[in-house]
Specification:
With 394 residues, this protein is α/β, with parallel strands linked by helices. It is built from 13 helices and ten strands. The strands form two sheets. It has a seven-stranded parallel β-sheet, with helices on both faces. A three-stranded antiparallel β-sheet has the order 4-8-7. Strand 2, helix 3 and strand 3 form a beta-alpha-beta unit. The longest helix has 23 residues. It is elongated and about 95 Å long. It binds 2-amino-2-deoxy-6-O-phosphono-alpha-D-glucopyranose. The site of 2-amino-2-deoxy-6-O-phosphono-alpha-D-glucopyranose has 13 residues, from loops.
């Protein structure tokens, strides 16, 4: 809840900026949220972040903005009579982007006649007709509904024999190069930190190749395959270096179950343990997130560490409980120094002293404790702690 408030505050700050701009512009309708690349970590509250990211209230809203960037790229290439080379992803994350591109094609005449696509990955072995194949997915969500030339669609082929696979992967890389390289790469992220199917351990210089899937990845895919035993153990994937050579990268992540890996990717050290961290070195990569996926970033999770806060009662409780865990102290033992050393000096100034704040919070938390086994119904507990002074002997 506190995170939601904080994220809402961040978004409303953005709105203030828009409002200011609005005065300078003729029409508010001209203002569109901007996801173009900006360098990361430039402000006090984003100081721990190493990848540019933009946060939206919903994945639907964000997906429309991503689709608009792709459409704009396609159109600008058309104006120059050039082809537009897109790297595409599968999974649930990009579905709404494809939906919006299809809508733009049908309702706004967006043409894909100059578009060449290369998909990131495919399970191995996998037939094209199998409805769990990425080949099937891409046709169902995008290619069957737009005017792309079938010969311009490239998806790793899960039916190539194991003997021919090495050469097949080399050719896939060559085909990307010959098409002029990727202009834009759309990405999702797996809970292992994989992009494409570049699982932990993938090298920065890896190219298109066959890879063994991580157990977590197979668990995540098991519902699509009716059980983990049916999930292929391997896949063909573009490599980290293939992805890194793209001129522009947009990675999308939605939902709480991506929050942890998003934090590690944006704020952690670069390591092949989390292959997505290699994107920290890309000069034009943007992460587009919803509020839940962003919720573990320091500026939302522990906002007092990166700037001034509006200290609601809820945020105070959250911060003080966090401080107890961090310092391994009970509430009544927290000192002014603990508050000052952990980004809470403004709270201390507001509340007076650690002594008063500790007792106040102790009392608040005490009232959240119920009797065994779950509280006596209708019992008045407004006088806890019972008395300030010891009872006198009469
Ligand atoms: C699969 C794909 C990835 C995708 C990931 C996340 O592993 N190979 O390209 O990013 O799933 O999937 P989702 O978007 O469904 O969370």
């Amino acid at each position: 809840m506190v995170q939601a408030v904080k994220i809402a505050c961040a978004i409303s700050k953005t709105k203030i900026v828009y409002t200011k701009k609005r005065k300078e512009m003729k029409s508010a309708l001209e203002i569109k949220p901007d996801i173009s690349y900006k360098s990361a970590g430039k402000f006090e509250e984003t100081r721990f972040e190493k990848i540019h990211n933009e946060i939206f209230k919903s994945s639907a809203e964000a997906s429309v903005i991503v689709a608009q960037e792709i459409a704009q790229l396609i159109r600008s290439k058309q104006e120059k009579n050039k082809s537009c080379v897109l790297g595409l992803a599968t999974g649930s994350s990009p579905i709404k982007v494809y939906e919006e591109l299809v809508r733009m094609h049908k309702e706004e005449g967006l043409s894909f006649h100059n578009v060449i696509t290369f998909n990131l990955d495919e399970y191995y072995p996998m037939s094209k007709e199998n409805n769990q194949s990425y080949h099937y997915f891409m046709h169902q969500h995008l290619f069957n509904h737009i005017d792309i030339k079938p010969e311009n669609v490239n998806i790793p082929d899960g039916t190539v024999s194991i003997e021919e696979l090495n050469q097949y992967c080399i050719d896939y890389e060559m085909n990307i190069k010959q098409a002029g390289g990727l202009d834009f790469q759309l990405l999702g992220i797996g809970r292992t930190g994989h992009v494409g199917f570049n699982e932990p351990g993938s090298h920065i210089n890896s190219g298109t190749r066959i890879i063994t899937l991580d157990h977590i990845t197979r668990v995540d895919a098991s519902s699509d395959f009716n059980g983990i035993d049916n999930v292929p153990k391997r896949a063909i994937t573009m490599g980290v270096s293939t992805i890194m050579r793209s001129k522009r990268i947009v990675l999308m992540a939605w939902g709480q179950n991506k929050a942890d890996i998003i934090k590690r990717t944006i704020q952690g050290d670069i390591s092949s343990e989390v292959p997505a961290t290699f994107l920290q070195n890309h000069p034009n990569a943007t992460f587009v997130l919803d509020q839940s996926a962003a919720s573990e970033l320091t500026r939302f999770k522990t906002p007092w560490l990166v700037g001034e806060c509006i200290w609601t009662q809820e945020l105070k409780s959250k911060a003080i409980v966090w401080l107890c865990q961090k310092t391994k102290q009970s509430i009544l033992k927290l000192t002014d120094r603990d508050y000052n050393n952990n980004g809470m000096s403004d709270l201390l100034a507001q509340e007076g002293s650690a002594y008063d704040m500790n007792i106040n919070m102790f009392n608040i938390l005490q009232h959240t404790i119920t009797g065994w086994p779950g509280g006596k119904p209708n019992t008045d507990d407004s006088h806890r702690p019972e008395r300030a002074n010891p009872a006198k002997n009469e």
